[in-house]
Amino acid sequence: MTQKPRLIFMGTPAFSARILESLIHSQNYTIASVYTQPPRPQGRGKKVTKSPVHRLAELYDLPVETPISLKPKADQLHFKELAADMAVVVAYGLLLPKEILEAPRLGCMNIHTSHLPRWRGAAPIQHTIWAGDTKTAVCFMKMDEGLDTGPIYQMMPIQLTGQETSADLYWEMERLSIEALADVLPKILSNQLEPKPQSTQGQSYAPKITKEMAKIDWHQSAVDIERQVRAMNPNPVAWFRYEDQKLKLYQAHVIDDHVCAPHQKPGTILSDSFDIACGAGMIRPVILQKPGGKPMNRDDFLRGFKIHPGTQVK
Hints:
This protein is an alpha/beta fold. The protein folds into 2 domains: 6-112 and 138-195, Formyl transferase, N-terminal domain (Rossmann fold), CATH 3.40.50; 212-303, Formyl transferase, C-terminal domain (Methionyl-tRNA Fmet Formyltransferase, Chain A, domain 2). Helices cover 26% and strands 25% of the residues. The protein has 8 helices and 16 strands. It has a 7-stranded mixed β-sheet with strand order 5-2-1-6-7-9-10, with helices on one face. Helix 1 runs parallel beside helix 2 and helix 5 (124-130) runs antiparallel to helix 7. It starts with 5 loop residues before the first strand and ends in an 11-residue tail after the last helix.
């Protein structure tokens, strides 16, 4: 009986967990170990919580490792002793030293959610939408010591409509990753697929999204703000302030994408419909959330929240 290929899986969020589950369900591989971020405080109660990958691995009785670093020699030796054919890395959250990258027989393969070399880094999906890109991709990349600079085994292109939120694109990339992995991984393991160097043109970096980056600057154009709103949905969610209250904005429509309302500063509320002047054009909020409340459509929101046309949001 042919021995199953041995894999190490390295990932942390729900996106990664569903890809791990697809590998488990295929029954084509031995999962030698699962590496994920350590349990950390989460939510308002700061309860120490295991990652989605950690919880899934325990559900299937897989060995789990949660190192805070992979630089210690003892951790590197343990990783090598797992005698894996390949490590599959999906949003793990730690940089991998050379000793880790070279330990598996065929190295480490990363699933990256952008059209590399565009949007290398931690938050490619959000930056793809925020920039108004018309295409993206799922990339299967052989990892090297750089940040998402390794050669590409295969790239699965995705055309964008300009209506996607980050949540929409996450789901599509997850579906495509699982579907393509079933074809790509066996080819890599049997040396049927050779990675090709990335293009030297079109490189860009996608830094981690912070809550401050989600704050709306009303001096931007209406088009740019609408993209920002979609990029920040579902997390951390675009926001602004009105009369000292922080309001979250999940969805917005561009009412006019060209000229700002005459003599109105960006951020001015223009109507009872909550139309807001931007640096160019106007935005109409569609789904909002006030502190302590739940997301609501604009009409329901305005029944319980008073606005005053002519005043400013910030």
